[in-house]
Design brief:
- By secondary structure, the chain is an all-alpha fold.
- The protein is about 80% helix and about 0% strand.
- It has 4 helices and no strands.
- It has helices at about 5-20, 25, 30-40, 50-75.
- Helix 1 crosses helix 4.
- It is globular and about 35 Å long.
Length: about 80
């Protein structure tokens, strides 16, 4: 159940995976404005289907790992 909620949760992890992919570049930003400009136009022009698949796979693994850990903590 909760398909919409599941998608919303997955999108959080997808965003985290996207930010992790650009960690060095984001940390190198001098100020908040530079950070926002980078995020508005990330260098994904050369990305291929496999790059997107990799990012989404990472997000899915993180979500399943975290959800599994949370379920274990509730038991």
């Amino acid at each position: 159940g909760g398909g919409g909620r599941g998608l919303a949760e997955f999108l959080v992890y997808a965003c985290a995976a996207f930010l992790a992919a650009w960690e060095r570049e984001l940390l190198a930003c001098e100020d908040f404005q530079e950070l926002l400009l980078f995020l508005q136009r990330p260098p994904t022009r050369a990305w291929r289907e496999r790059d997107v698949e990799s990012l989404l796979s990472r997000a899915y693994v993180w979500m399943r790992g975290y959800s599994g850990a949370q379920g274990h903590l509730r038991s």
